[in-house]
């Protein structure tokens, strides 16, 4: 049996989903370059913001069912640090909203899907009052299945679409194939579904596609999810200080590295370098643009971008980076075993690994302690961080669905969006007590059957506001939330933050090769001058025209924040 933690899903969790790592913090996944869907006035390109969007957005009504131990601040998740007492669980859905109808849902699934009619599915369907039939598809090849289904006339009642799959023709298909949920959710209408009303407005803004509110979102914190994680136990033993500038990091790295003893300072620190130098986000193409002094600038055109690559190159050149990181792309292999063995002391990765590494090592290596460094400004001052988008996975309802089917779907979503500390949350995330999980000393632990049945199904329909709760390691939950709060204080929102944007197809692949070139530059296989040439080529091959297109979009629609 494996201790489990409560948190929203992320792509990295799903792609590495095992019984040992069953939860992750929803957040930014670096350099996936996913293109969002959306437009104004029903066209296939563009976005919706400003006054037009305000008419579509659901009213926000904060949930008062459960009070978090750590409230949200500066864009952070809410946090829970107490033990779990099943007797104290609240009820957020006092009566079944489902009317007994049947709803088919297609969703990506990582791992082996459970058998139809398993105890988890039966219990959830009974709780909601809806007969949900799952059409689980392999998450690793989901884009292929998604494309085929959306091109056909046989579209399920609900289709889940992760942001990283919104490429090619998928955004246009979303606009053409899925229903407008505005009549059921816009304004005060959402109050019929209190858990959906408590979803942050930013996440709903991201759910506008083609000028209509079409998506049911999985919200996430807008604070960067990439944390410089380090071996706090070794730092304390060796007397190392956490660095507060890039120069301090380099000095520490040289001091900590001893190749003969098979110890290196770090893995590829490119993602942290981007944050330390204030580089615009590479998480999604629209987030890479920002208006500076009246001109739109793309991330790869900035001095900060080149400076971050140069600093990361110097780490490799100094021999302080673990040899494994020299072989391929950034942090491609599972770093867990060698990190636990002390072969390197620092790496940057999704903050979910703060908990998962702690849980992995708790029994066999009780001295092990992983913690997150605050991101520093490259020169020792405060960092400039850029907000990630506040939702990245969406569920859509077939445009041909009847009102009764749409209502059944919203009944499902209102249950799966229940906050932590409620009976509905436990049912959605853990299943049936005794069958799928047990609770000992306030810590829920999934049984073998729980690890088979209770995987990524109902959580994909809609989720509550970003939440971090680890009853087995409450100090980690506290550390994660407080880290987000500190970093959130330095986080700014770019011009196109929070908007679903469909770039014209002729330019969607324009910057696809930059991630590989970045990795080549920092490993010494290419030069900074090669990157400068690539940027020049990008401008001439369409980058400047794409800039004009974004400027026109901005002039016509404004931003989501102002």
From TrEMBL:
It comes from the Bacteria. GO terms for cellular component: cell envelope. Its main location: other. Gene3D superfamilies: Periplasmic binding protein-like II. It is found in: Cell envelope. Keywords: Signal, Transport. It holds the Pfam family SBP_bac_8. Belongs to the bacterial solute-binding protein 1 family. This is Tat pathway signal sequence domain protein.
């Amino acid at each position: 049996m494996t201790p489990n933690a409560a948190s929203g899903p992320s792509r990295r969790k799903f792609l590495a989903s095992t019984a040992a790592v069953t939860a992750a913090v929803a957040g930014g996944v670096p350099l996936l370059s996913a293109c969002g869907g959306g437009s104004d006035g029903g066209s296939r390109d563009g976005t919706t913001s400003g006054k037009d969007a305000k008419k579509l957005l659901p009213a926000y009504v904060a949930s008062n069912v459960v009070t978090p131990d750590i409230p949200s601040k500066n864009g952070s998740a809410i946090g829970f640090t107490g033990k779990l007492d099943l007797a104290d669980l609240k009820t957020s859905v006092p009566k079944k909203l489902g009317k007994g109808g049947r709803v088919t849902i297609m969703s990506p699934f990582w791992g082996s899907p459970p058998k139809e009619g398993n105890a988890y599915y039966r219990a959830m369907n009974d709780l909601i009052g809806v007969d949900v039939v799952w059409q689980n598809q392999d998450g690793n090849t989901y884009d292929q299945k998604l494309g085929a289904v959306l091109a056909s006339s046989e579209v399920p009642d609900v289709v889940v679409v992760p942001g990283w799959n919104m490429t090619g023709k998928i955004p246009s298909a979303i606009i053409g194939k899925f229903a407008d949920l505005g009549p059921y959710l816009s304004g005060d209408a959402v109050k019929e579904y209190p858990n959906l009303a408590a979803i942050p407005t930013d996440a709903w803004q991201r759910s506008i596609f083609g000028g209509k509110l079409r998506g049911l979102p999985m919200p996430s914190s807008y604070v960067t999810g990439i944390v410089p994680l380090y071996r706090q136990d070794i730092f304390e033993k060796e007397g190392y200080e956490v660095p507060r500038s890039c120069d301090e990091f380099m000095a520490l790295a040289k001091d900590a590295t001893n190749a003969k003893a098979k110890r290196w300072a770090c893995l590829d620190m490119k993602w942290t370098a981007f944050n330390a130098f204030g580089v615009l986000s590479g998480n999604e193409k629209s987030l890479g643009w920002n208006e500076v002094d009246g001109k739109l600038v793309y991330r790869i055109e900035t001095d900060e971008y080149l400076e971050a690559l140069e600093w990361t190159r110097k780490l490799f050149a100094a021999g302080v980076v673990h040899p494994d990181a020299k072989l391929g792309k950034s942090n491609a292999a599972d770093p867990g075993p060698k990190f636990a063995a002390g072969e390197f002391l620092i790496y940057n990765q999704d903050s979910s690994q703060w908990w998962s590494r702690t849980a992995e090592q708790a029994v066999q290596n009780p001295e092990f302690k992983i913690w997150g460094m605050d991101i520093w400004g490259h020169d020792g001052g405060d960092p400039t961080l850029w907000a990630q988008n506040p939702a990245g996975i969406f569920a859509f309802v077939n445009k041909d669905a009847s009102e009764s089917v749409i209502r059944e779907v919203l009944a499902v979503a209102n249950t799966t969006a229940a906050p932590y500390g409620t009976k509905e949350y436990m049912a959605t995330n853990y299943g049936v007590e005794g069958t799928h999980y047990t609770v000992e000393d306030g810590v829920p632990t999934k049984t073998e059957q729980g690890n088979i049945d209770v995987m990524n199904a109902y959580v994909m329909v809609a989720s509550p506001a970003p939440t971090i709760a680890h009853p087995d390691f409450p100090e980690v939950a506290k550390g994660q939330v407080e880290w987000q709060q500190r970093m959130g204080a330095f986080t700014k929102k770019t011009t196109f933050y929070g908007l679903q944007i469909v770039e014209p197809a002729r330019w969607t692949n324009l910057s696809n090769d930059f991630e590989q070139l970045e990795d080549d530059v920092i490993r010494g296989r290419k030069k900074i001058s090669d990157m400068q040439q690539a940027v020049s080529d990008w401008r001439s091959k369409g980058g400047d025209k794409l800039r004009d297109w974004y400027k026109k979009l901005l002039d016509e629609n404004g931003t989501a924040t102002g």
